[in-house]
Amino acid sequence: MADRAVPVIEKRLMEVKLGEIGTWVGGRDFTPNGMFSSVRKGYERYLNKYIYVKKGGIGGLSMVLAGYVLLSYVWSFDHIKHDRMRKYH
């Protein structure tokens, strides 16, 4: 039973070999409903791993804060880039 072959579409990304990536991506659901469900699944996985634990620390919340800081920097990079090119005024 443990030696049963799992289809490529049902594997997780970290279990897929390099030659199987095209088949794996082709089996994903890229509709708006599919994208929403995948984001929801990832969010639930994050909550279960870092937030809903018995002995929680600051790790999970600091990851969210770091992600927010990185995302806001990427969004405002054009403005920062133009300010960097100005010399004194």
TrEMBL record:
Pfam families: WRW. It is found in: Mitochondrion membrane. Belongs to the ATPase F chain family. The chain crosses the membrane at residues 57-77. One of its GO terms (biological process) is proton motive force-driven mitochondrial ATP synthesis. Coiled coil: none annotated. It comes from the Eukaryota. One of its GO terms (molecular function) is proton-transporting ATP synthase activity, rotational mechanism. It comes from Champsocephalus esox. GO terms for cellular component: mitochondrial membrane; proton-transporting ATP synthase complex. InterPro entries: F1F0-ATPsyn_F_prd (IPR019344). Keywords: ATP synthesis, CF(0), Hydrogen ion transport, Ion transport, Membrane, Mitochondrion, Transmembrane, Transmembrane helix, Transport. This is ATP synthase membrane subunit f.
